[in-house]
Specification:
Outer membrane efflux proteins (OEP), four-stranded antiparallel β-sheet, 11 helices
């Protein structure tokens, strides 16, 4: 009992000395977390592109086959799996940091044999614990938890980006198939022209120059078809890579474009707050702020407790089980001079917090730019589509007239070929505009923070 009272007195004295020595040390950095929220809430203001909205990125396109492809990519894409493993590594590091707050227990034993004196056995059980008096260990553990949160958000961003890439690649395949279909119609028309010219030449009403011109254009467009076909194959390979396939049959897609919902832009603070990259950047500020706090607390005194159970005997059983000696050690340490290392570490941690805040601002401004660009592009592409549709309607009428004029001998083959080329070029341009507009809606959903819900 006297030993316990004496130990408690010494422990109480150590605690009092630590508290007295714990002068309030803190950095002078501003509240970066609040500044980040303020920046986000006043980042931008934009109008909604339309009344439609959706809860998930994959819900922008209602297609079961596309959903299956996105699911396959989320399960098999190697890049995404690497990101998931990074999350698991950070989770293990967080458990490691949390374990530093807990006592450590070590069991030891030795055996020695001395000549003419028999064997001697010694056993020890040591319990060590650093009192987290200033919550510095807690700060570092919470910072590790924020690292996990940051990595989880980056993993969500990788999932959303992968889903958007699969959706865009799927739309690109449809667009390329449409391009090839238009090109085949063009070749069919050119072939018919050449056959008609041959017939006129045989009848003595056509010229050899017209035939040469028609065949030249036909050969050139056949080369273009080969190029378009190879592009389609390359797009198939790119999609296969996204799906995590090393080989396999080409992905079958629809012949026509699907409906793609226009995402609804909420109030800027609501829209941007759900973006995983912004949430990850904010978690980085929180982690850096906690480490900065812990670095300043390292300048304060610390208390380490150690309890040891020791015994030594010539008999192993007695050394383990009989009359061990307890010892309790309490150690107070206060940093006096380490060449400015601790203060420098605190300064570095504070600067890293400021750096994380600037990283958040950079992510925020890029997010605003992405949303504004996507919203502006949606409106621009809609207007372009209207103009191209009008131009195509007029070109179709004009083409009918030129074909009649050429057959009547009122127009040259060059005039007819020019009008035909212009008509098919407009069809290709309209096809490309539709693809760009639908793809942009997927990008807009990603920019607005819509996540994949599969």
């Amino acid at each position: 009992m006297q030993w316990n009272q004496a130990a408690m007195k010494h422990l109480s004295l150590l605690l009092v000395l630590a508290v007295l020595g714990g002068c309030t040390l803190a950095g002078t950095a501003p509240d970066y977390q609040q500044q980040a929220i303020t920046e986000r809430d006043h980042a931008a203001s934009w109008p909604s592109p339309g009344p439609a909205t959706t809860a998930g990125l994959n819900q922008l396109i209602a297609d079961d086959e596309l959903d299956a492809l996105v699911t396959e990519a989320l399960q098999a894409n190697p890049g995404l799996q690497q990101t998931l493993l990074s999350v698991q590594i950070y989770q293990a590091q967080w458990r490691q940091a949390f374990g530093q707050r807990l006592p450590s227990v070590e069991l030891g034993g030795t055996a020695a044999k001395v000549e003419d004196a028999g064997s001697t056995f010694s056993t020890s059980l040591t319990v060590s614990w650093q009192l987290d008096l200033w919550q510095s260990l807690s700060d570092r553990s919470r910072a590790a938890g924020k690292d996990v949160e940051q990595q989880q958000q980056l993993y969500q961003l990788a999932r959303d980006t992968l889903a958007a890439n699969v959706m865009d690649a799927w739309l690109a395949l449809i667009a390329q198939q449409q391009t090839i279909a238009i090109q085949r119609k063009r070749l069919e028309t050119l072939t018919n022209n050449a056959n008609f010219i041959v017939q006129r030449y045989r009848n003595g009403t056509g010229s050899l120059d017209d035939l040469t011109t028609a065949r030249t254009v036909l050969a050139s467009e056949q080369a273009n078809l080969e190029s378009y076909t190879e592009t389609l194959l390359q797009q198939q390979r790119a999609l296969r890579t996204l799906l995590g396939r090393s080989q396999g049959a080409p992905v079958a897609v629809a012949d026509t474009f699907p409906d793609v919902i226009t995402p609804l832009a909420d109030l800027p603070e609501q829209t941007l707050a759900r973006r995983p990259d912004l949430q990850a950047a904010y978690a980085a500020i929180e982690a850096a702020d906690l480490r900065s706090s812990a670095a300043y607390k390292d300048l304060l005194p610390s208390i380490n407790l150690e309890a040891a159970l020791l015994d030594s005997d010539g008999n192993l059983n007695d050394a383990l089980l009989t009359g061990p000696l307890w010892s309790l050690l309490g150690q107070l340490t206060a940093p006096l001079y380490k060449g400015g290392q601790l203060q420098a570490a605190a300064d570095i941690a504070e600067l890293e917090t400021a750096q994380a805040y600037q990283g958040y601002r950079d992510t925020l401004y890029n997010a605003v730019t992405e949303v504004e660009n996507a919203l502006g592009l949606e409106q621009s592409l809609a207007r372009q589509q209207v103009h191209i549709e009008d131009a195509l309607a007029n070109a179709t009428i004009n083409l009918t007239q030129y074909r009649s004029s050429y057959r009547s001998g009122l127009a040259s083959i060059l005039d007819l070929l020019t009008v035909e080329q212009k008509t098919y070029d407009l069809q290709n341009q309209l096809n490309d505009l539709i693809y760009q507009r639908l793809s942009n809606r997927v990008n807009l959903g990603l920019a607005l923070g819509l996540g994949v819900t599969l």
